[in-house]
Amino acid sequence: MKFGGTSVGDASCIARVAEIIRAASRDNDVVVVVSAMGGVTNKLIEAATQSEAGDRRAVATIFGELRQRHDAVVSALISSAAEQNRVSNKIHEILEEGDRLCEGTILLRELTPRALDSISSLGERLSAPLIAAVLAEQGVVSEAIEATELVVTDSDHGAADPWINPTRERCEARLRPLLRRGIVPVVTGFIGATAEGVLTTLGRGGSDYSATILAAALDADEVIIWTDVDGLLTADPRLVPGACTVPEISYQEAAELAHFGAKVLHPKTLRAVMQCGIPLWIRNTFAPEQPGTKISPVVPTNGGGVKALTAIGDLALITVGGPGVVGVPDVLGRTFATTAAVRADVLLISQSSSQNNICLIVSSSLAKRTVEALRLEFARDLAHEKVEHISLDPEVAIVTVVGQNMRGVSGIAGRTFCALGRENVDIIAIAQGSSECNISFVVAQKDMKTALVTTHREFQLGHCEFATVPSRLS
Ligand code: ADP
Ligand code: ASP
Ligand code: MG
Q1: 207 lines ligand 2 (CB under 6 A)
Q2: What stretches in the chain show pLDDT beneath 50?
Q3: What is the 3-state secondary structure (H, E, C) of 202-254?
């Protein structure tokens, strides 16, 4: 069971979480994965960047607030003075470590990816012992464990990938004996370590991935991601107020949604369980009576066509264009070698059949750097007018329509075009994967919400018509 930042946001939320774990651990072996308290990772990253800027006072203020926030939970939920002292001391010890890391950064005025990982991981290292202590207070025998002991990763700081075999060995050695003794391990999400023991992080929102990594390593029966919404919804509820819970969805569909921006799941979450077929649930900590969404290898047969929508904003469209592009040697290879060199993740490409326009979508934050690198790469071709322009539209969004049963359902693109046309939303580019599990449209950032709401209405996704409740193991 993984509990996200909002689920462990304050004392009353943590009390709910403890109750959910207590009930589940009566009849099951449970491993708990926790995120930092909501907003804490952002604050830690701010402390790290303020350290690089040399602002000691800003850093001290942040650490002061963090101390208060965690101490408030200790005094609200732990009754014995001795236990309060023990947990507070642990929290202060971790915060002092953070202070020292920031002091080092202030002295060097350099924030390395390795130091940023160590600072941003403190939130999970604070919440795990806190939640383990609250569980103990409720009579659930538990032990806080730092995932640096369990999850072995490569050294790609900020986006580390796990190595499953050594992770499996460590989980067997460290977690299995606890489970056999009826102890609930409370593991820090988000974090791993290289084989040499250097702390890494899996990327923002990575605690979802931590949960599936541990589940795969332990051959778990199921994974439950506890969050602040009723499940995977037909669209981001902050953008489409009428979004409904999808009761059942396939791995592939959920992975497409996660990849194209549905924040409820970290994009890599399903990678870890895809091979072993472990089902994953998304459920609401604040409405545990709701069944949630079941994500499994099976494609549910109900409701063909569009299953859900997602969107990513703050993107830029780069066009490499001109009638001579077709004659430029290896234009695609050179374009992608250039984006790779500036480490710009290309989220979507679209190429006209005449090859005189290649459109790429990258994050806005990397757009300028990418355009400059492309202009350099194609400088000679630009001089000879083979490539007429490399242009940039800095404010676009991708809206993606997802549904595995879309294969064979004709007219989905057509219906979307018509509906968006009626609302005067201009479609700038379109791409469809050969799996036919998604169709993506590029629209202006200002049109993103209208595009989502209109498409949601067009496919009647707000009718919650797939009302069958899937079965759960426990
Ligand atoms: P946690 O802190 O539990 O990890 P996140 O904030 O990372 O939670 O993810 C949950 C949020 O994801 C929801 O509150 C919701 O606003 C957002 N979200 C975006 N798209 C979807 C979607 N399709 N279904 C459910 N939630 C979504
Ligand atoms: N605390 C981390 C973050 O905010 C990881 C997570 O919550 O999943 O990115
Ligand atoms: Mg999350």
Answers
A1: yes
A2: 466-474
A3: CCCCCHHHHHHHHHHHCCCCCEEEEECCCCCECCCCCCCCCCCECCEEEHHHH
Quick one: DSSP state of residue 294? E
Report the distance separating Cα 170 and Cα 69, nearest Å. 33
Helix, strand, or coil (residue 309)? strand
The pLDDT tens digits of the residues spanning 400-422 come to: 999 887 766 668 888 888 999 99
Interval between CA 207 and ligand 2 midpoint (Å): 6
β-pair type (293-296, 248-250): parallel
Nearest one of 139, 64, 55 to 95, comparing CA atoms: 64
Which residues have CB atoms below 5 A from the ion given as ligand 3? 4, 205
| Count of all residues that appear for the chain in the document | 474
- How far away, in angstroms, is 51 Cα from ligand 1 center? 30
Ligand closest to 228 (CA) is 1
Q: Tell me, what amino acid is at 358?
A: I
pLDDT of 449:
97
User: Given ligand 2 and candidates 1, 33, 37, 41, which is best to mutate, with the most ligand atoms within 8 Å of its CB?
Assistant: 41
Using the CB atoms, write b or e for 325-355: b if 16+ within 10 Å.
Answer: beebeebeeebeebbeeeebeebbbbbeeee
Using CA atoms, how far residue 121 sits from 51, 58, 59, 84, in Å, is 16, 19, 16, 23
